[in-house]
Amino acid sequence: WSPNTTFYVAIGHDEEVLGRSGALELAKVLQKRGVHDLFFVLDEGMPIVDGLISGVNVPVATIGVSEKGWMSLRVEAVGPAGHSSIPPRQQATHTLATALHNLHSNPHPTMLGTGPEEDMLRAIAPKSEWPYRLAMSNPWLFRLVLSAVMSKQKETDALQRTTTATTIVRAGVKDNVVPGSAWAVVNHRVHPGQTLEQVLEHDIRAIGDESVNVTVLGTRECAPVSPYGPESSAFCLIAATVKKIYPTAVPAPSLLLANTDTVHYLQFSRNVYRFLPLLLTAEDIRTVHGHNERISAANIWRAAQFYQSLILSADGAVFTAHSSPSHVRLGEL
């Protein structure tokens, strides 16, 4: 077999640290080669989830049509230092702990209805149980109920709001010395329904203490939403390939909760998707970046089948579309 069109396989080595030495450099190479208007771009993303969505007893293939932005903040408190035998009444560690408690006790508001998550619910509604089917088919009417149900699980709650995670905490260096400062890094994954400015304003209000310093360490805007649905040939091609390899799965547009290297490839196509062709349970997902992280041999085999089938199908689709006399050159992927 030899392709009728051009495929680009870009494999970076530093996606976990923003891809600046990998994907960014690869994107520069593509730019120099004059690459543009690709049929679609596909990167890692949400998996096929089984048993994760309440009321749905079939696997759901969540195809990311966008991804959350992010914001990292340094939250710092200062106070008098001293000997632990005569501790100050107001300590920096206490102030910081209170600030973090307030922050986590006041989550960001639900943004259900402002992103692609309601279309995900509509897509899986026909395969859901009663009365979930009624609610998912009519999210405009049952939005409050759906939001409450989604809030019960961290995986589905993350789809509807900006999340808050304290990832680093630092204070003293000696067991008998009260530290004069304490700080933490708070990482947000920002829902596309919110701006970065709104996230920062919410945090300052939630902390409610002017003595606590909040500094923005880094940000990334949410990715634009790529076309999906029956009018998008690229999305339909990926969805059809999912059905071929996982016949019982329901493809649905979704919001990727994390971040990928696609930020460096947005200039090459308006059809940018994020999908991981692995069938994962809630237990499997809990191991990601955690204890005993793993992928089964069966999942690796099916993933290989998925990519092979997608390449062959995409090659045929692009070749057919570009084989009419009105097209001068073949398409690219």
How would you portray this structure in words?
The protein has 333 residues and is α+β, with helices and mostly antiparallel strands. The chain has a domain at 69-220: Alpha-Beta Plaits (2-Layer Sandwich). It is 34% helix and 23% strand. The chain has 10 helices and 10 strands. It has helices at residues 23-32, 92-105, 117-124, 132-137, 139-151, 154-160, 196-207, 233-245, 282-286, 297-321, and strands at residues 41-50, 60-67, 69-78, 82-83, 163-170, 177-178, 181-190, 213-220, 250-256, 272-281. The strands form 3 sheets. The chain has a 4-stranded mixed β-sheet. The chain has a 4-stranded antiparallel β-sheet with strand order 5-7-3-8. Residues 322-332 have low confidence and may be disordered.
Give a quick rundown of the structure.
The chain is globular and about 75 Å long.
CATH topology of the domain at 69-220: the name is Alpha-Beta Plaits
Strand order of the largest sheet: 9-2-1-10
CATH class value of the domain at 69-220? Alpha Beta
Give the name of the CATH architecture of the domain at 69-220. Answer: 2-Layer Sandwich
Portion in helices: 25-40%
- Count all strands and give the number: 10
Organism: Hirondellea gigas
GO biological process, one term: amino acid metabolic process
Family: Belongs to the peptidase M20A family.
Pfam family, one: M20_dimer
